[in-house]
Design goal:
Layout: H1 10-22, H2 25-32, H3 37-45, H4 48-78, H5 82-89, E1 104-109, E2 115-119, H6 122-132, H7 139-153
Antiparallel strand pairs: 1-2
Helix pairs in contact: 1-2, 1-4, 2-3, 4-6
């Protein structure tokens, strides 16, 4: 895939970034500053260099998403529950804003005045991490492929390869 970014103008690159974010040719062309966004957006999408640049942006976004998914599972698997425990014994709910409750799946205030806190399952998070680390069987890759195919099938990514 030969992506010749040097030939794209700043306006065309902005269109590509916007299109990768929202999937609307017309809206992307309008926000990029084109005078006839409905027409210009679809003309831009018909160009191979624009399609290739959008592909490269989407691939970068998917790589970032994959890293974020792994980081989230790592936090669930290895993260501290100290703030949640501190919250149970706290007398003041003012401390809630300072607590890291990423590992908490549910908090209930029971009728008898006690608090019940449920955490995400660390073993499931570890199992997901193991799956994500398996070459050619990545759950993130499957998820990303499903999103990409859905986008293509919706008509929004007719030029996205």
């Amino acid at each position: 895939m030969n992506i010749n970014r040097k030939n794209l103008t700043a306006k065309e690159k902005l269109f590509c970034v916007l299109f990768a974010q929202n999937g609307s040719a017309e809206r992307s062309a309008r926000f990029a500053g084109y005078s006839s966004p409905q027409k210009d957006g679809f003309v831009l999408l018909s160009r191979e260099d624009i399609g290739n640049y959008i592909d490269s942006i989407c691939n970068q976004n998917l790589q970032y998403l994959s890293k974020q998914v792994i980081a989230g599972y790592e936090r669930l698997a290895f993260g501290s529950i100290a703030d949640a425990v501190k919250l149970i014994f706290s007398e003041s709910p003012d401390e809630l804003g300072e607590c890291d409750l990423f590992n908490v799946s549910e908090i209930k205030h029971l009728k008898n005045g006690s608090v019940e806190i449920k955490f995400f399952d660390r073993m499931k998070a570890l199992e997901k991490l193991e799956t994500l680390g398996t070459p050619n069987q990545s759950a993130v890759s499957g998820f990303v492929n499903a999103i990409t195919e859905g986008f293509k099938n919706s008509g929004g990514g007719s030029n996205v390869k």
